[in-house]
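Morning run. Coffee first, then this:
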Amino acid sequence: MNDGSPIADVVARMQQRLDELPEEVAHRRFFLSTYLRTTQAVGKAIDDARFEDPAWVEVWDVEFAELYLRAHDADLPPRPWRLAFEASAQLPALGHVLLGINAHVNYDLPQALLAVISDEDFLDRSLMDRRRRDHERIDGVLSARVAAEDEELAATGVRSLLDHVLTPLNRLASQRFLRESRQKVWHNTFELQRARVAGTYEQRLAELEVLSAAKVADLLRPGQVLLRLAVTGFGVTLPPV
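And here it is:
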């Protein structure tokens, strides 16, 4: 990741939030730290020419991060983020990470994609195929981070014995729901784009907010979250209209 790049700038701002995190919301550090490292990994993948259109991926990734930073700084964030941020500080670190991923991927990611894909772009099948492939390549970057992030969580010392026993399953489940959620995000992006053209974007975005918040609420139920996700799935799907 090149110093002075837009991604380096957004990483620096994440680090600032992490350094200045008040003690009463210290539990937010689990997702924020994970997201900071993931953003750095995406920046490195861009530098390593792993995408067909690295300039577009960089703009998209920064737009995505900005949505998180705005939610983090807001007095009244969108409901998926509000539920994630207000979760009990006693929740295991993995739980906080999953809540943040859920809110950010299911609710924010379609918005970030729409911000960097115009309505005219959606009419260009060749261009949209390139955008989809780069969207899918992010999975490779994130999947490569799963084992490392699991070790980061282990270093916090707050995982239970059962968590340790389930680590291989956790990693497999994590990789599966990353793929699944991205497929649903792509679907939701097209649904929101049709709404943007039809003038009903705000209504459809409100539907997505409700669906994403319901998924966060489901993750807050007691039990092994990744085991439940392996059965029920991770992402949310906007129904057609």
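The two ends are 42 Å apart (CA to CA). Good start to the day.
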